[in-house]
Structure formats: C-alpha cells, structure tokens
C-alpha cells in the first residue's frame, strides 16, 4: 500500500512536465499559424494593391489612347467632337471600370493648365498645342534667315538675359564661335568634368541644364510635383535660396519651349496639298482645276508661265485666260501672298496681250473667304510635315513676340483680335492671314511673317491621370502625341507616379461622390 502511493507520487512531476511541453508546442503551432495568416493577409493586400495599380495604369493609358483617337480625326473632326482646348465632357472623369459588388470606380482625366497673362489660373480638360511654344529645333534656322532672330526669340522669355540667350544659341548653332556673351567649346572643356557643346538640336529640354547660366529654377520653376500649382512648401524652398525668387507667379522657360511642334502639310480632307511650283504644268493644271474653280486654276498657271505684270494697263477681273499648257513655266511663286492683287499679261494670237487680274484681292471679303480656300488646297513647301511654326491663335504673348519680323507694337492688338482662348473656328481664322484681313499688319509684313506662323498644329501635350474614386492608388504621366503621321504616336512620356496624384479629387472627378455610378446601378442600366 505504501509502495503504491510512493509510485503514484513519483510519477506526478513527469506528467506535469509533459503538459508544459505540450502547451509550448501548441503555442508555437498557434504562433506559426498566426504568422502564416499574417503573411497571407499581407500578400493578399499586396496582390490587391498590385491589381489596383494595374487598373490605374490602364486608366492613364486609356486617357492617352483617347487623346490619340481624337487627334486622329483631323482638325474638322476634332472640332466636331468638342475640340481639344477645354472639353470636360470628353476628357474629365471618364469611367473606365466598375468593380462588381463594390463601390470601386476607376477613372481617367486628361488635363493641362489654363494660362492667362503669363500665369496659371486653373486647369482645363484637354490638351495643349505644342505649336503655341517656341521650337528649339528651328531657332538656328531662324538665325540664318533673319540675323539674331533666334536670340531675340529667347530674349522674350521672362527673366532671360542676353548672356544666357547667347549661351543657348551657341549650344544650338553648328559653329564653334562664341557670341558676344555666349559660351562655346573653350568654356565647356574647362569644366569639371569637361564636356562639349551640342552644336545642334537638343534631344531634351533637360539638356539645357548643361548650358552656361541655365538653372533648374529658371527652366522648370519651383513646381516640383509638376501639378502646375506652386504649393506653400515649394514656395518656401524657393524663398529659402534654392530658386530665383519667393514668388509663385510667372511661368518657367519650359512652359514656352518645345522640341516637337509640327503640323501636316495637308488639305482639310487629309490629302497632301498641291505644290503650286510643280514643274509639270499639265499635271498641275489638272490638280488645280479639280481642287479649285476653273478661272482660279487658269490664272495660277498663267502666273507660272508669264509672271507678274507691272505695267500701266489695269486689266480685267474674271477674264478668261487662254492657256497653252505646252509652254514651260518661267516663274516660281515665292509666297502665296504674291498672288494678292497680282496681274498677268498673257500673249494673244491677235498680237495684243490680255492683262488678267488675280481673283485674290486685298479686299477684306476676299481675304476672309477666297484666300483661305486657296490656302486649303495649295502650298509652296513640298515637305509633308512643317516644323516649328507658331500657332498665332493660341500662343502666349511672349511666344508671339518671338516670331521673326513681328512688329512689337502689334502684339497686343493680335491678342485682342484673335478672340476667345483656344482660337476661332471661323474659316477666316484657319490661317494667319486673318491678321491681314483685320488690317493688323500690312501685306509686306504678312509676307515676312507667313513662313513662321500657323493657325493649327498636330502635336499636343497633356497630363493623363488614372485613379480610383477613393483617391488611392493613382497613376499620372505627361505625354506628347504627334499626329502628323498616318497613326498618332507618342513622342514623349514622363512617368509622374512618384510625385503623387497631383490634383484633388474634386478637380479630377468633377462631381460629388453621391452622384457617382455604382456597379449595381450600372448593371441595372445595362440590363434595361
């Protein structure tokens, strides 16, 4: 009896130890299970976040594709769709995806800054015409055509100095001779590390940061998150000595400069314009008579054959010109404006030449109606794409003043005469000759300005933002789309995701949360 109790008593500590071990094992298994669940939860959240980021990436890409599709319509089609200047119905808060069973709505917006008097006053929904900027690629050509034209164009930019303008032109031009205040190879080779100037067109605006005197603040401003608004912290960093001033007003140089502006040399239907200086007059006559009326075609051929008449005989309007298409062309038309009020003396079999008056006159009515119809169809430039011309309908004051030969006294009148921002859609404003029609410049001045001006453009810039209505995540990018070819293509892309959404939800969405469609209501509408 005593021995049995002793045995039972001696086994109790071992049983207690086993219980402790089992408890520890169970705790470890539980902790491992909880750890596994936590890892799986984190992985699940990461997977959902990754899917959400893919959604907003696709939304931003959809905004870019929409912009391409609109640009592909040509000028008339773009206007019919509401235009590109400010079109919130097309570019604001477009729903891309409604997640079934949730309130998740994925959208995209396409937007650019609204600029007045050299300051950003808000945003608009659409795209910005690159032809409203100075194309750095053509400044050297401007300099060759008009001495110091490139330098004088740069001087129009805010806070630009003679020394920096000279340095930029030295970087762009082909020679190695420094300008009076510029810098060439001798200066750059003495830097640490040494470098060589481009002496040709730059490959990016950022390359200008290598030019003597160009700073990041002057070129890009203090808007570090690139949302076209200078927030308080950005203003503080500028005021702290990192920038040019403590003011948020004014635009940086990058807002006035581009590498991409160009336009198709095409008729309204998209086909190439007729080369008015084509050497084959028979082929030229066939093309002109098909595109224009017969009297116009006859006068143009006669002008090519016999040139302008400067005699005393007044001539006849709407005269029927007898043509001999076997005669060679003796004259090339240097400017289509040479046809205004022109006269042609055409030899006749009777021996007395007949003087014919041009159907294109300097009367306001002809300048508003007949001349645009001619410019629709013909050209003196054989290039399929025209690069670097300035859009007189949308360019800011600084860019208009930069045009070679632009009268300084006429800039304000031009700004007032073009009407509402975004340019006029009336036919007389399709071409820069509306300046002549409104008597803002003389015919001689218009002839000098014509090679540098346009009233359109086929390359556009915008920011595209993809986002959830909840606010996160989001994707943002700046793109430049070139529609001068058969298919619009992206020529510039800058991923701005790391800089944040940039714009508040009310601006992007444009409507209150309670007004937004939900998957259930959308499904019901689809079912009906």
Lay out the secondary structure.
Blueprint lengths: L1 H70 L2 H7 L7 H4 L2 E5 L6 E12 L2 E6 L3 E2 L4 E2 L3 H7 L3 H7 L6 H11 L12 H5 L26 H5 L11 H11 L14 E2 L3 E3 L9 E2 L5 H11 L2 H13 L36 E4 L7 E4 L6 H5 L1 H8 E2 L5 E3 L2 E2 L5 H6 L8 H7 L16 H4 L5 H7 L3 E2 L4 E10 L5 E9 L6 E7 L9 H5 L9 H9 L1
Helix pairs in contact: 4-5, 5-6, 10-11
Protein name: General secretion pathway protein K
Subcellular location: Cell inner membrane
InterPro entries: EF_Hand_1_Ca_BS, GspK, GspK_central_sf, T2SSK_SAM-like_1st
Quick overview of this protein structure:
Its main location: membrane. Belongs to the GSP K family. By secondary structure, this protein is α+β, with helices and mostly antiparallel strands.
Structure description:
With 528 residues, this protein is of the alpha+beta class. Among the domains are: 134-260, Ribonucleotide Reductase Protein R1, domain 1 (Orthogonal Bundle), CATH 1.10.40.60; 274-378, no CATH class; 383-454, no CATH class. 38% of the residues lie in helices and 15% in strands. It has 19 helices and 17 strands. The chain has helices at 2-71, 74-80, 88-91, 139-145, 149-155, 162-172, 185-189, 216-220, 232-242, 281-291, 294-306, 364-368, 370-377, 397-402, 411-417, 434-437, 443-449, 505-509, 519-527, and strands at 94-98, 105-116, 119-124, 128-129, 134-135, 257-258, 262-264, 274-275, 343-346, 354-357, 378-379, 385-387, 390-391, 453-454, 459-468, 474-482, 489-495. The strands form six sheets. Strands 1, 2, 3, 4, 15, 16 and 17 form a seven-stranded antiparallel beta sheet that branches. It has a two-stranded parallel ribbon with strand order 5-6. Helix 4 crosses helix 5 (149-155), helix 5 packs across helix 6 (162-172) and helix 10 (281-291) packs antiparallel against helix 11 (294-306). The radius of gyration is 34 Å and the shape is elongated. The relative contact order is 0.14. Mean pLDDT is 87; it is low at 241-248 and 512-528. The chain crosses the membrane at residues 16-41. Residues 132-218 form the T2SS protein K first SAM-like domain.
């Amino acid at each position: 009896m005593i021995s049995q109790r002793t045995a039972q008593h001696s086994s109790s500590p071992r049983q207690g130890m086993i219980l402790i071990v089992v408890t520890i094992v169970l705790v470890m298994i539980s902790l491992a299970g909880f750890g596994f669940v936590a890892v799986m939860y984190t992985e699940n959240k990461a997977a959902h976040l990754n899917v959400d980021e893919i959604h907003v990436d696709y939304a931003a890409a959809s905004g870019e594709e929409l912009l391409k599709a609109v640009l592909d319509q040509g000028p008339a089609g773009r206007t019919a769709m509401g235009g590109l200047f400010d079109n919130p119905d097309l570019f604001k808060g477009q729903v891309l995806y409604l997640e079934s069973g949730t309130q998740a709505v994925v959208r995209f917006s396409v937007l650019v800054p609204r600029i007045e008097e050299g300051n950003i006053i808000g945003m608009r929904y659409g795209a910005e015409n690159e032809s409203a900027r100075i194309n750095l690629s053509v400044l050297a050509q401007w300099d060759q055509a008009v001495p110091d034209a490139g330098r004088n164009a740069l001087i129009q930019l805010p806070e630009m100095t003679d020394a920096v303008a000279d340095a930029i032109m030295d970087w762009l031009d082909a020679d190695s001779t420094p300008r009076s205040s510029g810098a060439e190879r001798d200066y750059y080779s003495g830097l640490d590390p040494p470098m060589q100037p481009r002496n040709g067109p730059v490959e990016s605006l950022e390359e200008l940061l290598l030019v003597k005197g160009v700073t990041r603040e002057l070129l890009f401003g203090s808007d570090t998150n690139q949302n076209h608004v200078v927030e308080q912290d950005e203003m503080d960093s500028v005021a702290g000595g990192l920038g040019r001033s403590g003011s948020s007003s004014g635009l940086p140089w990058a807002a006035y400069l581009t590498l991409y502006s160009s336009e198709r040399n095409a008729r309204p239907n998209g086909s190439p314009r007729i080369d008015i200086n084509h050497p084959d007059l028979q082929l030229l006559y066939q093309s002109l008579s098909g595109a224009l009326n017969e009297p116009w075609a006859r006068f143009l051929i006669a002008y090519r054959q016999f040139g302008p008449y400067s005699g005393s005989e007044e001539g006849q309007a709407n005269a029927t010109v007898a043509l001999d298409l076997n005669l060679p062309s003796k004259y090339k038309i240097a400017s289509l404006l040479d046809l205004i009020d022109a006269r042609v003396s055409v030899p006749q079999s009777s021996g007395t030449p007949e003087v014919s008056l041009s159907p294109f006159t300097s009367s306001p009515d002809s300048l508003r109606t007949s001349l645009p119809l001619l410019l629709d169809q013909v050209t003196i430039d054989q290039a399929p794409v025209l690069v670097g011309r300035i859009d007189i309908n949308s360019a800011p004051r600084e860019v208009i003043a930069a045009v070679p030969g632009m009268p300084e006294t006429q800039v304000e009148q031009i700004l007032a005469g073009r009407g509402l921002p975004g340019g006029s859609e009336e036919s007389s404003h399709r071409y820069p000759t509306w300046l002549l029609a409104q008597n803002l410049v003389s015919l001689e001045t218009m002839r000098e300005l014509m090679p540098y001006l346009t009233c359109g453009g086929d390359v556009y810039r915008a920011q595209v933002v993809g986002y959830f209505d909840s606010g996160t995540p989001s994707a943002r990018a700046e793109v430049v789309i070139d529609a001068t070819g058969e298919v619009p293509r992206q020529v510039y892309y800058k991923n701005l995701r790391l800089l944040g959404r940039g714009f508040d939800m009310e601006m992007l969405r444009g409507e209150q949360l309670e007004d937004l469609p939900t998957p259930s209501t959308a499904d019901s509408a689809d079912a009906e």
